[in-house]
Amino acid sequence: MKVVKFGGSSLADGESFAQAIKIITADPERRVIVTSAPGKRNPDDTKVTDLLIEYAHRVLNQQPYDDVLHQIITRYLAIANYFNIPQEKLEDLIQRLRNLPTGHYPNSHYLMAAFKAHGERSNAMLMAIILHHLGYEARFVTPSEAGIRVTGTPNNANVIPETYSLLDRFTAKQSELLIFPGFYGITLAGQIATFSRGGSDITGAILARGLHADLYENFTDVDAIYSANPNVITDPQPITKMTYREMRELSYAGFSVFHDEALIPAIQGNIPINVKNTQHPEKPGTLIVPEKNFQPRDIVTGIVSDKHFAALYLHKYLLNKQIGFTLRILKILARHHIPYEHMPSGIDDITIILDRRLLNDQLIDEIGNEIQEEVNPDHLEWINNYAITMVVGEGMRNRIGVINDILEPLAKHHIAVPMINQGASRISIMIGTYDKDADAAVQAIYHRFFAN
Fold it and tell me: Considering the entire predicted model, what is its pTM?
């Protein structure tokens, strides 16, 4: 049995729905279908999820919302019309969208989660209606019915272990196509809570593990996951096969084709993942597999860079002799609810790399002042223009001289490297550069390992 997830671009209109249905019905093993909300039909279009967020804001601010509600409903009606389905078949779907403002929500965060989730919920309902109309035995299944239980915040939920016990008891007829909405689960109190944005990937992985799938197929709008960002490297090499941990490492620094949190249930269930293009389903795509018995084809699998980092640099003589030095700094960050990304250090120096998107000028000053008062460094400096480049590959693990192969082209292109860090797994090397050099760093390293 296969779990199949379609992204928003793959379910944006009637024509894309027809292509998804062609894929579903071409393989009898594709029995569990996960839907995203309708995405953009063209570059100037608006995703249905974004319309639902606007709908929620209007309700919260007690502003008129009929126009945005009309836009949302029209998107689903247009898809139904493509298949000549009468509007009365969608009355339940439409009424649920209209009734969202009158629902019971503990607070505004739960309201927002419920509104957002109805992009996926409505699309799953619509997919089941269309399949049934076309003569297939299709069943719409809600997360509540299936037992997808979550905790955490309303808009950043986490699946709980009970989910897998409940999914293990879930039953269906062999002939049924089961249509699940992605992106959300149900809290212990019965409220809707969504995963982080793009979380339909997570739902697919949860179902693949919980229903013991043989394969999780993730259909999107690219032919494969590439060895580098196509906006940085022209025609980068596609990755035919990679390991879970390679994908995790690359996702951290910006490989966004597949949600990195979705790897966890797949890893726990030992479920291979195949990322494929909805428009070219005949192409092999990228297969993500366990590390066991994996034979890497290349030294490096992928190179990726992200520019949203900053760093605090501290210099203090003999800091390596001071017990609890880093703990005192981490407590300051914890008080401000700021996680650190990395903390490379020497005998007199330490660099704390942070996600710049979580900070503002006031927080930077407050944290800097508290660190100065707490540990009294000889020098404290804020580096705002930091980028991290990840070079990842199972083939690096037992290869001598890889670091030289990475640094040599950077030196040739006069790219400064203020930080280097290698993970304990030995399949990744992290290079810190200044953000102005990030793209050039990726290009230099790529052409060293992937000669065109």
Answer: 0.87
